[in-house]
Design brief:
Residues 12-336 form the FAD-binding domain. Residues 467-477 have a biased composition (Low complexity). The protein is an alpha/beta fold and 490 residues long. The protein has helices at residues 21-32, 57-66, 69-73, 110-124, 173-178, 244-257, 259-264, 309-324, 331-359, 367-378, 380-391, 396-399, 402-415, 419-441, and strands at residues 8-11, 14-17, 37-40, 54-55, 82-87, 90-95, 106-107, 127-129, 133-140, 143-150, 156-160, 163-166, 185-188, 193-199, 208-214, 217-223, 228-233, 269-277, 281-284, 288-289, 292-293, 300-301. The chain has a 7-stranded mixed sheet with strand order 6-5-15-16-17-14-18, sandwiched between helices. It has a 6-stranded mixed sheet with strand order 8-3-2-12-21-20. A 4-stranded mixed sheet has the order 1-11-10-9. It folds into 2 domains: 11-78 and 104-357, FAD/NAD(P)-binding domain (3-Layer(bba) Sandwich); 366-444, no CATH class. A hairpin with a 2-residue loop joins strand 5 and strand 6. It has 14 helices and 22 strands. The protein is globular, with a radius of gyration of 23 Å.
């Protein structure tokens, strides 16, 4: 057989796999520092991606850091100045905390948002190559030294680089190829996610991000650009694949079980199909090693119930660029900087990770949560703390101080008819807290970095790691529904 054609070869300071939020943030930061940055993305750009795309004030502050906020605001999404949450007969109205002068949220569709980020990266000096699919990483000893990819014309290209950044989402080729699988910690979600867009009707309030809890169901309405409303529902997860007809049915049934959300959408016209993400799991992967790093969903993912993905992708993509810009060509210092960046993300995100997993349990509100809603409806400070947790200006520990916890238990015992249910809920919360502490001290600390896998390319046909080989601290994660496109879910 004739030899296969040799790959074209070139070099860069940094090659980034994935041009969306995390990859663009790293590219903007590094290119502005004067580095040669090449960004590869398998998709045509701009293009849509699976995403619920709510940005709290802290997320908008990240866009401001990158110099992209003005262009994102120009897309026309209305400022969301109010937050509303309802459950168990109680409604909580709050405003948002101010972050770097920004006091509102924004829900902007991903095609426009990602286009702004790509244009900002190009303006900073990064080279963006679309329809370029990475197939393997290049190695120099135990270091990642670049990538091999296939371009839109089918040609094979190799790029050597001091650093490879894998910002290629939950199904990351880079993560698989460098040996960052299985995750350090995985928590399967108790909820599936379905969403659709609706053409809003005149006179409806377009300044409020709203969420409703009814039974085990959760639903939202977020006004977004082009006069639309993004409406998401998260019913309890069910096993099995979810094709288009099943997604349509489950979405419609969940809307019917949430009367206030159905009323918000009354007289609105649905635009497009129902999109679905099922079999979700939240996780931390090992995210840094010799010559490589995994920002965004490639390294860390939280269930969309708390809408944290875009903010974290932007923030830790940017911080990654800032951490390595002075040490790119000094391997030992680069590796120390990568480890410090990884530790920072774990330290800053683990509390929200555990908080998100509480809300993703896919069950009806328990007595202590009902009491929290009851108290927050009449206590503005408690409501502000809760909204601040979602906005990342307050910590979950501020909500669960010993004094507040005692008041919640006492109030629940006073207002709930079933005393045993309150005590069972308290025992559950104590067990969950102990488990979270254990996970932080074991799975998220002191792990040996993975080494590059010996195979030349990321072969998707490789057999999965047997469950018996996984550490006991790792929960078995359900596979994501393969009828959903591989994408960064936000």
């Amino acid at each position: 057989m004739p030899d296969s054609p040799a790959a074209a070869a070139e070099s860069a300071d940094v090659v980034i796999v994935g041009a969306r939020c995390a990859g663009a943030a790293s590219a903007i930061t590094l290119a502005r520092a004067g580095h040669r940055v090449v960004v590869l993305d398998a998709a045509p750009l701009p293009s849509d991606t699976l995403s619920t795309h709510l940005l709290w004030p802290a997320g908008l502050a990240e866009l401001q850091h990158l110099g992209a906020l003005a262009d994102v605001l120009a897309l026309g999404a209305p400022p969301l100045t109010n937050a509303y949450a309802a459950g168990a007969g109680y409604g909580i109205d709050t405003t948002f905390p101010t972050v770097d002068g920004i006091d509102h949220a924004l829900c902007v569709r991903r095609t426009g948002l990602d286009d702004v980020l790509v244009r900002t990266a190009r303006a900073a000096g990064a080279e963006i190559r679309q329809r370029s699919r990475v197939t393997s990483v290049l190695r120099a000893g135990n270091r990642c030294a670049g990538v091999r990819y296939t371009d839109g014309a089918g040609a094979t290209v190799e790029i050597s680089a001091a650093l490879v950044i894998g910002a290629d989402g939950r199904d990351s080729t880079v993560a698989q190829t460098v040996g960052a699988q299985p995750p350090l910690l995985t928590v399967p979600s108790g909820r599936d996610c379905y969403y659709a867009y609706w053409r809003d009707t005149p006179g409806r309030p377009r300044d409020t991000a709203a969420q409703w809890r009814v039974g085990a169901d959760l639903g939202t309405a977020f006004p977004c650009d082009d006069g639309l409303v993004l409406s998401l529902v998260q019913p309890p997860a069910v096993p099995g694949r979810c094709g288009p007809s099943a997604a349509e049915r489950r979405y419609t049934e969940a809307l019917q079980r949430i009367p206030a959300l159905a009323d918000r959408l009354r007289d609105c016209e649905r635009v497009g199909r129902v999109r679905a993400a099922t079999g979700l799991s939240s996780y931390f992967r090992r995210s840094a090693g010799p010559g490589w790093a995994l920002p965004g969903d490639a390294g860390h993912f939280k269930d969309p119930v708390t809408a944290q993905g875009i903010r974290d992708a932007l923030r830790y993509g940017r911080l990654l660029g800032e951490a390595v810009t002075e040490v790119l060509h000094e391997p030992e210092r680069l590796d120390r900087a990568l480890r410090a960046w990884e530790r920072r993300r774990v330290d800053e995100c683990r509390a929200m990770f555990h908080w998100t997993n509480r809300l993703a349990r896919g069950e009806a509100m328990r007595p202590l949560e009902i009491e929290l809603y009851r108290r927050a409806a009449d206590d503005p400070e408690l409501a502000r703390v809760t909204t601040g947790i979602f906005s990342r200006t307050r910590r979950p520990a501020e909500l669960h101080t010993p004094a507040r916890a005692l008041r919640l238990v006492a109030g629940a015992l006073r207002h709930q008819p079933d005393t045993r249910a309150v005590l069972r809920d308290l025992a559950l919360e104590l067990r969950i807290g102990a488990r979270n502490i254990h996970a932080t001290r074991t799975a998220l600390r002191g792990n040996t970095p993975p080494v590059l896998t010996p195979r030349r390319s990321a072969d998707r046909s490789d057999p999965p790691v047997p469950r018996s080989a996984l550490p006991a601290t790792l929960a078995a994660a359900p596979r994501r529904d393969r009828s959903v496109p591989a994408a960064e879910h936000r």
